[in-house]
Amino acid sequence: MVWVNALVQGLLLGGLFALFATGLSLAFGVMKFVNLAHGDLAILGAFLAVSTTATLDISPWLALLVVVPVMAALGYLLQRYFFNYTIGDNPLPSILVTFGLGVVIQNALLERYSADSRGLDAGSVETASIKLTDGISIGWLPLIVLLVAVGVLVGLQLFVSRTRLGRAFRATSDDPVTARLMGVNDRNVYAVVMAIAFATVAVAGVFLGIRQTFGPSDGPAQLLVGFEAVVIGGLGSLWGTLLGGAIIGVAQTVGNQVDVETGWLSGPLLGHLIFLLVLVFKPNGLLGRSRRTS
Amino acid sequence: MSPVDARPATPAPGAYRISRSGIDATVGTIVFAAAAVVLALAPWWDADAGLRTKLIPILLYLSLAQMWNLLAGFAGLVSVGQQMFVGVGMYALLSFAEDQGLDPYLSVPLCGLVAVLLSVPVAALAFRLKAGYFAIGTWVIAEVVRLFVNEWGYLGGGTVRGLTPATLGSYSKATRQDVTFWLALALAVGATLVVVAVLRSRVGLALRAVRDSESGARGLGVDATRTKVLVWLIAAFWTGCTGAVILLNTTSTRSDSAFSVSQWTALVIFVVVIGGVGSTTGPIFGVIVYFALDQLLDNADTWRFIVLGTIAALFAVVAPTGLYGLIQKWKPLQFFPVRRTLVARQPQ
């Protein structure tokens, strides 16, 4: 029964991981941009929520209304006036600038908030659960997180496939030069993509903060998990990202259960190992199309 | 499509020769050699080791920086997982010296070999990923290695382990100071020479061809993968040896600091980016800036990362070729003889 429970909890946890992965996947899909600061931005979002809840005396759920627009604006401005200069054939500058930004965010948070672990208090919903059987119950909080993750992914899918701006995303992704000739402002498209990426990762960061305690140096772990979900699912596939998140989630809860039973292995370690296995046997991911050679 | 006859006429054989040196490279090499000799004599002019204790970490950073630059700047392998080779070098030395009873100083090259052993399966996995995903992929693998060491009781798990007086006892304190300094100097100078030697060889030519256009280079018969693997192994060996000497200098560690991404990869990346990615002199400029800043910031750890990270991020966007690139804009100098230029021969 404990194993079935680990499976169920892992699937729920996968929702959070998919939310971490969404922004990475989108930015890579549209502009081949790999943001190494992605995890640190999630933690930045969580700390912004800490300050917002403390200053305005509101719940973390309401704090989202402040944190998400602030982070989206930050993403837009950073991309528009900074990152855009690194977009090109050479991926090195974009890797270096985002890696540097991540380290700066981490240490700035350390300076401002100290190394203590923090948490966001969302009240009784944190412990409320639906009891299925004796050994298995579904917490309301993980369920809400999973539903929000699915909602975000569905919304994004619809946005990209149905709207005019979404069409510009796809056009720029396929061929930025031609898209520009057709009147698409690619610099603006990139900035909007980054705004969405920052918004989703801020939501993920706040949810993480409600679920568990966090500290300034927890960012890279979130980056790695999000990245693994993207690669396992297959580059450029949003549904693959959800599947990848679920697989990493299950691997982590099962790994933790193994740790409890045998004292060996740990959640993050099993998650990483599953990722490496997928990399060996399905390098294009489970739902990824084979990459075009361009 | 350009008409064939628009190409310039093929020059007569012997009209040009390939030159790899010039007055600038000769002066650069002499300055570098002189600095190395002066530093090697440091035990005689810095008897109380006041300067040497500050220089050892800087020299070790130069060694790491040259190797990271060889990977990222020349082979397009932007690794964020070099801390795994540093950490493995440190733990290999602990194991050789403490558990196997080998001489700690003579074990240093063995630690490099252990890092090479690790680097082979890592390459098999990480080389499936490109560019930014390669960067995160190497980071994941470094995390896996760190977590394994954490779990593995034989190496001491996550607790502090160090070289004991029993192991180091056969050497006096002064000897240990001198040998550790010389090893650090040898690694820094050696790393620079290895990179210069690689770049002067056919491999170096192939590397830069692959960096500028992988498909073009493949079309000319360059085995891009083999070239990258070779460079990857060299960097793993040197980084592993450097890790071993880092342990000789600090004498103790635990898994979290031995495999620290910020300590052994982030700072190294900042040093190279500020000095100049893709140039042999860049890392040297970078460590000088790092050394100067470190004196100003008085070892305040968080501020060191904030200041260096901000400067590096700005350089990556505004001046992607770093300080070296800024000098190049003023005058195309090269300080090591690695670039091939065509020189017209004087007509007879």
Structural summary, described in words:
The complex is a heterodimer of chains A (294) and B (348). Chain A has 11 helices and 2 strands. A two-stranded antiparallel sheet of chain A has the order 1-2. In chain A, strand 1 and strand 2 form a beta hairpin. In chain A, helix 1 runs parallel beside helix 5, helix 2 crosses helix 3 and helix 3 runs antiparallel to helix 8. Chain B has 348 residues and is mainly α. In chain B, the strands form 2 sheets. A two-stranded antiparallel sheet of chain B has the order 1-4. A two-stranded antiparallel sheet of chain B has the order 2-3. The longest helix of chain B has 28 residues. Chain B has a domain of 231 residues. At the A-B interface, helix 4, helix 9 and helix 11 of A face helix 6, helix 13 and helix 15 of B.
Biggest beta sheet attributes of chain A: 2 strands, antiparallel
| Stretches with pLDDT under 50, minimum 5 residues of chain A | none
Name the shape of chain A in a single word: globular
What strand order characterises the main sheet of chain A? Answer: 1-2
Distance between the termini of chain B: 38 Å
Percent in strands of chain A: under 5%
Whole-number average pLDDT of chain A? 90
Q: What is the element string of chain B, with H for helices and E for strands?
A: EHHHHHHEHHHHHEHHHHHE
Q: Based on helices, strands and strand pairing, what is the structural class of chain B?
A: mainly alpha
